[in-house]
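Before the break, one more example. Copy the sequence into your notebook; we will annotate it together after we see the structure.
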Amino acid sequence: MNDGFEPFKHNSAGGGNQAPRLHKPVMVKEVIKYLNCAEKPDGVFVDMTVGTGGHAEAILSATSKAILIGIDRDEASLEVASERLAKFGDRVVLIHGDMRDTVRLLKWIGIDKVDGCLIDPGMSLWQVDQERGFSFRIPAELDMRYDTSQKLTAKDIVNKIPYEELVKMLVMAGERRKKAKDIAQAIITARSQNPIETTEQLAAIVAEAVKSKGRQRIHPATRTFMALRIAVNEETDALEHGIRAALDVLSVGGRIVVLTYQSIEDSIVKRLFKAYSYHTPTTLLSPHFGEEDTQPMLRILTPKPVRPSPSEVRSNRCARGCKLRAAEKVK
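Here is what the structure looks like once it is written out:
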């Protein structure tokens, strides 16, 4: 059954003396509500992007006997989550892996169906502090990998992909086409002289490429860094296939909750929820579903995305722009 697989185990010798800046989970009350934790005190829940364990801790605290399986690509984040969730004992299983592989990962630990799935994609404050190149504000090499065992880094992308792909990548992250072209050309010119290897180099190149008068709402390199991070970690593909994997493992009556922070993410969730709630197109399904399965699989619980309260936004800047969508599996 295990094929050599072992759930993640905390390394008590690691961590050093510096306390991590734990990422404050967003919309906790709403997540608990839409996962229907009150009705599933002994359920099985999967946090498919467990990170440092904020939402997982809330789910376990809101249930008396529930089991929480936490999956994450970032082994260092799992170390933090393991320590944070240790008080829950054997109610927690943490797995180093990709949410796209949720079906296989759960089978490895003997679980076929679960009562709830949570997806909270993107980077955390804790990861920003790890000097992996996620932020232009922290001097570091251009890495941006969640899973540091993968080969592709942000440095590879910024120094190798052609102009057209750079433009497309930036536009998908929300950059205006004219600015995207200017930034892409500046990157091409700069890397022809010397490799772009650090956050400082890239931020300076972008800032120079899009000089503008007056004070700007966000740093000019913000979307460039986001675009690179999304590309390095295949975030849009991971989200889409992660949702499909969640629907595969959910029991009838089980719920999926997805938090998003960018329009590109929210559009993926909205499209898939809508498709599965009208009918079940065979092109969206896992191979084991038959072509006759055309009845709705989902009941959408949030016709419009739920937004954080003004008070939460004031107390937690990470909540800005967050949207929660939830659905229940009905077939």
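The domain at 28-122+235-329 is CATH 3.40.50.150 (Rossmann fold). The radius of gyration is 20 Å. Try to locate both features in your own notes.
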